[in-house]
Amino acid sequence: TMLVCKGRHMIKIGAIGHIHLNNTFKKLYKRRVAKKLTELKKRHTDLVVFSSLANGADRLALHEAIKLNIDFTAVLPMDKKTYHADFNCNSKKEFDNLLKKAKDIIIMPHNHSFNRNIQYELAGYYISDNSDILLALWDGKYNNLKGGTSETVKYHLSQNKELWHLKVDRKSI
Fold first, then answer.
1. Which pLDDT score is estimated for 5?
2. Of 59, 94, 107, 115, which has the most beta carbons under 10 Å away?
């Protein structure tokens, strides 16, 4: 007879979401993300989060993971220097500090006709492909924006994978 042990194993969590979150609800979103990550940590020995380190939802989820001593892999849509152009001065500092804490850094390749939205799409697909659960801080609206949150959610669901959707309110910009 074969001995089968029911053990806890590594769970990979993709963290994605909107850049512009309504500040009124950020504390609530942090509590909900922390609660979900804590629940997962109780059930599984190892957790790792995959994140693109973008402003907003990505970093909100990542900061909660770091507080819980959960390792993360940075999935950059493009090389660091090019990606930096998407951030203001303070955001670049936060990005650099987070990048130093990453367990691994993965940079999406690009062809000669560089297109930012395609690079974001590649990063979203990579995060989905490498995650058991996708944690999406998303307003729930499909907008067909290439590389956007809704397209990554749609892709993830098409793979019949688990989605944890935290409905968020976007800040009007």
1. 45
2. 59
Segment 74-111, tens digit of pLDDT: 999 999 999 999 999 999 999 999 999 999 999 999 87
H or E segment and range at residue 72: strand 71-76
Q: Which residue, 44, 160, 172, 50, is CA-closest to 102? A: 50
Q: Which helix (H) or strand (E) holds 98?
A: helix 89-101
Closest to 30 in 3D by CA, of 162, 168, 171, 139 = 168
Per-residue CA distances from 16 to 3, 91, 94, 111, 146 (Å): 39, 17, 17, 24, 14
The DSSP call for residue 170 is B
| pTM for this predicted structure | 0.91
Contact 18, 168 (CB under 8 A): yes
The answer to whether the beta carbons of residues 169 and 22 sit under 8 Å apart is yes
Burial of 121 (0-12, 13-18, 19+ CB in 10 A): buried
Question: What is the C-alpha to C-alpha distance for residues 56 and 60, in angstroms, rounded to an integer?
Answer: 6
Asked whether the beta carbons of 47 and 70 are under 8 A apart, the reply is: yes
Q: Find the helix or strand (DSSP H, E) in which 120 lies.
A: helix 116-129
CA distances from 87 to 32, 81, 90, 152, 156 (A): 26, 11, 8, 21, 27
